[in-house]
Amino acid sequence: MSDKMADAMADPLLATRSLRKSFGGIVATDDLSLEVAAGEIHAVIGPNGAGKTTLVNLLSGLIKGDGGDIVFDGRAVSRLRPAARAHRGLARSFQITSIFADFSVLENVALAVQARSGHSFRFWRPTGDDQRLRGPAREVLARVGLADRAEILAGNLAHGEQRQLEIAMALATEPKMLLLDEPMAGMGIEESQRMIALLDELKADYTMLLIEHDMDAVFALADRITVLVYGRSIATGTPADIRANADVRDAYLGTSETG
Amino acid sequence: MISTMFGKPTAWTTTVLLVVFALMPFVAPAIGEAFYVDVFTRIMIWSIAAVGLNLILGYGGMVSFGHAAYIGIGGYTVAIFGFHDITNGFIQWPVALAISGLAALVFGAISLRTRGVYFIMITLAFAQMVFFLGVSADKYGSNDGLNVWNRSTFEVAGLDLSIDDNMTFYYVIFALLLLVIYVTRRIVNSRFGMVIQGARSNDTRLQTVGVPTYAYRLTAFVISGVICGLAGVLQANFEQFVSPDMMDWPRSGELMFMVIMGGMGSLFGPVLGATAFLILSEVLSGITIHWHLIFGPLLILLVLYVRGGLTGLIGKFERRPPGV
Ligand SMILES: Nc1ncnc2c1ncn2[C@@H]1O[C@H](COP(=O)(O)OP(=O)(O)OP(=O)(O)O)[C@@H](O)[C@H]1O
Ligand SMILES: [Mg+2]
Fold this sequence. Notes:
heterodimer; A: 259 residues; alpha/beta; Rossmann fold; 2 domains; four-stranded antiparallel sheet; 38% helix; B: mainly alpha; 13 helices; 4 strands; binds adenosine-5'-triphosphate; binds magnesium ion
């Protein structure tokens, strides 16, 4: 590990300590301690039901943990509501596409811009021609490659485009960190390649926690990888470490996923 | 936005209806049907309430089954002031709107913690609570209701702006309807309006991009309650009578039907719905006393089979909305 990396690790952007969450008898997050250094892409992999989405839900505040802490950017955020965490700079995308389907693509992103532009108790001025919202929204759309789809109803976009819109909405909140829950889910090969290229480009500007099943994408993008099994972290390390790890091979990589 | 989904009532329909509203006090007597002035006064009052409910039902996706309560609260406030010989409208009206808003704040704060069917049931429960409060208020006529002997008075600097004259009052209500539609239009297109529509579309997503939706939805609920309170103030003044019946649950249901029938989430749809609802019930009740048996199924068919209610139906005939 380089000195620079070591410095970053001493003061991670995101850290969880002994995070726990059960649903009835199912332990979805089991004493999980994880650190994401500023600037890195930290991938989380694991078989179906390993607790990856639960982790993102805990981090973004959609569900409350049973115990443990989450520290983001030097402050405890475990008790903050989702909106407050977004304001601190934590943005997320969803495994199952979550957009405003009956809004236009541009309105989807403009609403995310609005969310970080002070309160919305503004009752009188129309947003339709508000360039303080639409200007930044168009820039973000251009960045993810949806500039020419701005006026289309978001629900009418192709699946792959909706995944891009998910990323655009997260970016529009001007986050410090992206929590991406399987951004390539359901994508064809070509669309996946484009998404990988986009994430690679975004890497320069954002810290990311990347949940992904596509091992090619993970090994191409990630600086470090954490392997979850039954809610527990069984290994964390560089892609090379993970590939060489016998436990991981037994628990996960040996199965169908890598082939 | 939902309005683009359903297509809007065209400018043509809107204009025709507004012209009919504007001319009715002259047209009705001319064709020997003077009572239609009263029918249209009621239509406009219910339109105001329907526009108010539509703000949360159509735009906000909050299915309140208890909005007659705010009509009742507005009406009773006027009547009770009158009962105690306070007829000054500058006192009656603001207080009536404030109490409607306060009730909406309390009921909404609790109801909005729930979703779906629970929300419907709890708004209904609160409204029935208000209904029973009216029934048990012996001093104010309980079941028999309360007469409003004098309409609200408005005297400024020796000038008497009376609404005693039905013609004057008709145009005051017309002006208020236009005002309510205009204000609602500004609201739904504003940042606030985008938030409540976003919360209808996908509340979780909106929270995760940084909008604490609860406070905005509650505010919309209060605005909606105040608008219905205004309708109640007008109703008490027009009928010169209030009774618990005006806030019983069938009234809430009828109000919902007007909105759904007219086309949710379009600005003018509720006005169309209120007009169709009241004229249909007027006509059908003239034909048979069992008119509810015809009316009910008719409404259900409309709601089930015409996307966007009457607004959608008219849109289909007038022109196809683009890109839908
Ligand atoms: N809301 C919930 N209620 C009950 N059980 C849940 C809930 N959410 C998740 N679980 C359970 O917790 C475990 C972890 O689920 P989670 O969705 O986090 O897995 P995942 O790693 O994201 O899986 P996948 O790869 O299929 O997306 C699973 O056993 C799941 O059934
Ligand atoms: Mg998942």
